[in-house]
Amino acid sequence: MRVIRHRGRFALAMVLSAALAAATACAGDDGKSSDGNEKITLTVDDFGTFGYQDLFKQYEAQHPNIKIKERTVPKLDDYTPRLQQWIAAGAGAGDVVAIEEGIMVKFKAQPDKFVDLKKYGAGSLQNNFIAWKWQGGMSPDGSKLIGLGTDVGSMALCYRRDLFKKAGLPSDRDAVTKQWATWDDFINVGKKFTAAIGGNTKFIDSPETYYNTILMQEAGKGSNQTYFDQNNKFVMESNPAVKAAFDETVKMSQAGLANGVQFLSDPWSQALKKDAFATAPCPAWMLGLIKQYGGDSQSGKWDVAGVPGGGGSWGGSWLAVPTQSKHPKEAADLVKFLTSPQGQVGAFKAANNLPSSPQALNDSAVKAFDNPYFNNAPVGAIYGPAATSLKPVYLGADNQEVRQAVEADLRAIAQGKLSPGSGWGKAVSDAKKAAGTG
Q: What keywords sit in the KW lines (predicted)?
């Protein structure tokens, strides 16, 4: 499923062309917007775990003429190029598409490619969303509502309580949180864990997950930007948030704490199943992924603690309707349903995706929810209070390409293929090439 970069442009083109052909055959191919009786299929493109299966069934029961087909790609990095190809081609995309925060800027620059949801009654829904989440779905000039918000990535940290006990470390979530107030404290705990456990079990899952967590924390405390400023000028070299996150992540690798695997790759999922790492950064959406890939055998072994450095946000998406959809009204109605306060509560209960709706955040089903998979951690209480105070971090149009380049260098350091001393210079050089400035 993953596009292999070193095979070149021809291979990439073949993959995307095949995906485009298949998608065109099944997305929105059965006529114009219906009169309420015509049988139609709405295709929904998303990635990861949005937790919509029960909501789809509920919607279909309420709308007997509508069938929903979900096309889910596990990895965002595989999903994005396909969506870009479909949107650029004007064909192949679903009637509803999920747009993650890291690629929203790129699509907002193409407002003509998306339906204005205000034309289908969404303009009155502003109070259903945190202010910045609503604004994040608007076109740059404020004239069109391109997307309605799904979740936000309020931050915590997941850990294997059984492995912590085995290492002689505190395993109670409050005690765990107290022992790593800073990231340097976290590294010291990791050294103790490694000395006690040894073997093939690393302290952290992947250098890139920790890098992105620290980066979003640091950016949120300062300039609210990462690789690009609000004018999309490349500012990685001059942004202390990026350097601080890079340096702290390198420290983890130098201490021998890191698996040098790519997040959500097959080696990552196998490492999870084989108890090969003891901690993972946990924006709210990560809970669903750990449960999905960890399976029943790890239920109750994980728990959720506070994140070093205090809070932060990573992730979150919007749902949009491409203008290529043949059923824009029905698609817009589905978007409104899925992103309604009730829909966001349903997605939270299914996959722990933290709502961007104040009403949903205040719902007792969210506030009082204890997650049995994570040792009954009170995830509603852990994640919810911080959500309304989160500040959006600006991510430029080429954010994903640059992020992938930097992550590859961090993995190379963890694998011993790149020296820490030359890592930053190479990361900057690779990032510039990815951004088209080097």
A: Signal
